[in-house]
UniProtKB/TrEMBL annotation, chain A:
Protein name per UniProt: Type I-D CRISPR-associated protein Cas5/Csc1
Organism from which the protein derives: Halotia branconii CENA392
Organism placement in taxonomy: Bacteria, Bacillati, Cyanobacteriota, Cyanophyceae, Nostocales
InterPro entries given in the database record: CRISPR-assoc_prot_Csc1
Organism superkingdom: Bacteria
Automatic annotation (TrEMBL), chain B:
Ranges for domain CRISPR-associated protein Cas6 C-terminal: 154-264
Transmembrane segments: none
Pfam families documented for this protein: CRISPR_Cas6
Highest rank taxon of the organism: Bacteria
Protein name (record): CRISPR system precrRNA processing endoribonuclease RAMP protein Cas6
């Protein structure tokens, strides 16, 4: 198993309807690890369905073992993608217009209850993460894995550049006890022997993330001097991408806190 | 007098200041104060995790909660969709944090309606340093302040008033401020940190205060907002006052601290904080 540090650079606006507030659809600044996992490993590890019909067509299948397309395939392959932390980010708000079609929903016509304008309200505003925003994430995966250099993410299938640095094993040690993880985490993926003590909660579907968490349990930590020495061997750009230290929980996998989802 | 109920089985030695960030999901005017709505919301979160805790707090005369009003920038023409607001929850008993977070998590996907106005939940900040009003402390730490302050500057960030001789006193006299804090400290701090009774021989050396009205459901509550500087001459009194002044950030001061009143912060020299912008109406000079 190896730990990879990934820098994600947005080459398109990324949009998720994280929060729907009237006609405003806002994208949270964190990128969810489940969405990222599908973006990174669909086809090679997670089956890409050509067509789905019936009940499954409208049902998310993140940890549903009975569905063909789920994240449990990555558990079997020993792959785990952490949520992505924004390093520098900005937003762009775009106004869009919805077509007047019968199945879209009833527009508020002039004279309707709640209608303030004399024309149908059929537009919305999408608050999107703007081009150039940069993110950091980590992937735990086998040594020989191929991490794609470009992925597509979000409702607009936005193009994102992925730059990967493999962190050598000798720089990492396993520790136990209380620690602070500055990287966002998905609480459903934390193993049962890791306890969340105090954290900030980022409300977002499908599962809210925790950030700046204080935890108790086993964790991977970079050895201070070796880590700095390793960073000094990299070029300036790579050096700046890497953080001062890394603390990440061990034993993390999709649905780890959920017995049904365990491998 | 009503029998005081306590939460002995849950007692913890930590204190927390938690920020909950919400966004407006509609356009329009938000009522000037949402004190009751926010109080009910926090109790609802606690009740989801543990109904007994919520019931005990509701019946208690010494609430372990302080809740600010809804803070944030209110536009003149009314709120727009997506506008950010936040409020602060002070917990004087750290064991409540698990229930509060559990209740928050279980209701975070539901629509949040405060006084008939819809909001969506955005974030909860519990870690000190991640929001300028988020914080955590321990009674043992507060009991041993690194420096005893003989001169203290308290900022009353929301209207603050006190009960004095069955009337309401709006001026934060030293004995009213520190007795209020002292009483709450001795209720919630572990017994080994209880503070002795004090004669507050303090002077008010400077102040800048205005009275503001907080429009509550039961009527208008008037309180003072601004800053006051207190001076203490005796070292032991100054030490206790320093402890209580730090405690004030979590506990609030005076009346109705769970309804948005009495939000207080100790200001250290050469340190300025961002002022609360409260939806209050000035009524007197």
């Amino acid at each position: 198993m190896a730990l990879y540090h990934c820098t994600l650079t947005l080459h398109d606006n990324v949009f998720f309807a994280t929060r729907e507030m009237g006609i405003l659809y806002e994208t949270e600044k964190y990128l969810h690890n489940w969405g990222l996992s599908f973006a990174l490993f669909t086809i090679n590890y997670i089956p890409q369905l050509y067509r789905i019909q019936g009940e499954l067509a409208q049902k998310p299948t993140y940890l549903d073992a009975s569905a063909e397309q789920n994240l449990l395939h990555l558990n079997q392959a020993g792959i785990y993608v952490f949520p992505a932390q924004p390093i520098n980010w900005s937003y762009q708000i775009n106004t869009f217009k919805a077509a007047q079609v019968a199945y879209y929903g009833k527009s508020k016509q002039f004279g309707d209850k709640g209608a303030e304008k004399n024309y149908p309200i059929n537009y919305g505003r999408a608050k999107e993460l703007a081009v150039g925003s940069q993110y950091r994430t980590y992937i735990i995966a086998p040594e020989n894995i191929k991490i794609p250099h470009w992925i597509r993410l979000g409702k607009w299938a936005a193009k994102i550049k992925v730059e990967t640095i493999q962190i050598p094993d000798r720089l990492i040690e396993t520790k136990s006890g209380n620690y602070t993880c500055s990287h966002p985490l998905n609480p459903l993926d934390l193993p049962n022997n890791t306890r969340l003590l105090l954290y900030n909660r980022v409300v977002m579907p499908p599962v809210s993330l925790v950030s700046q968490a204080q935890l108790h349990g086993e964790y991977l930590s970079t050895k201070k001097e070796e880590w700095q020495a390793f960073k000094s061997t990299l070029n300036i750009q790579q050096n700046q991408q890497l953080p001062q230290e890394i603390n990440l929980p061990t034993g993390i996998f999709y649905g780890a806190g959920n017995v049904v989802a365990a491998v | 007098m009503e029998q005081e109920m306590s939460l002995p089985q849950y007692k913890s030695t930590t204190l927390h200041s938690i920020i909950v960030e919400v966004a407006a999901a509609d356009v329009g005017e938000i009522p000037p104060t949402l004190s009751r709505a926010l109080h009910a919301l926090v109790l609802k979160w606690l009740a989801i995790a543990n109904p007994a805790i919520a019931e005990t707090i509701h019946a208690s005369q010494n609430s372990p909660l302080t809740i600010s009003g809804l803070l944030g920038n209110r536009r003149r023409g009314g709120v727009r969709v997506g506008d950010y607001f936040y409020f602060r929850i002070g917990l004087l008993d750290g064991s409540l944090i698990a229930s509060l977070m559990q209740g928050f998590e279980q209701s975070e996907t539901q629509t949040l309606v405060l006084a008939d106005f819809p909001f969506v939940l955005r974030n909860m900040y519990a870690l000190p340093g991640t929001h300028h009003l988020a914080g955590a402390a321990d009674y043992a730490l507060l009991f041993n302040p690194p420096q005893v302050l003989y001169e203290l500057e308290l900022h009353f960030l929301s209207p603050t008033s006190f009960k004095q001789n069955k009337s309401v006193q709006t001026f934060p006299l030293p004995e009213l401020v520190f007795n209020s804090l002292h009483r709450r400290w001795n209720v919630f701090a572990p017994s080994e940190y209880h503070l002795p009774t004090c004669e507050w021989s303090a002077l008010v050396t400077a102040y800048e205060l205005k009275t503001y009205a907080l429009k509550m459901e039961g009527g208008t509550e008037v309180g003072a907002q601004g800053w006051v500087r207190y001076k203490f001459n005796e070292s032991e009194i100054a030490r206790i006052a320093t402890i209580l002044a730090n405690f004030a950030f979590f506990a609030g001061v005076g009346r109705k601290t769970a309804m948005g009143m009495g939000q207080t912060q100790l200001i250290m020299q050469n340190f300025k904080t961002q002022n609360f912008k409260n939806p209050v109406t000035r009524v007197m000079r």
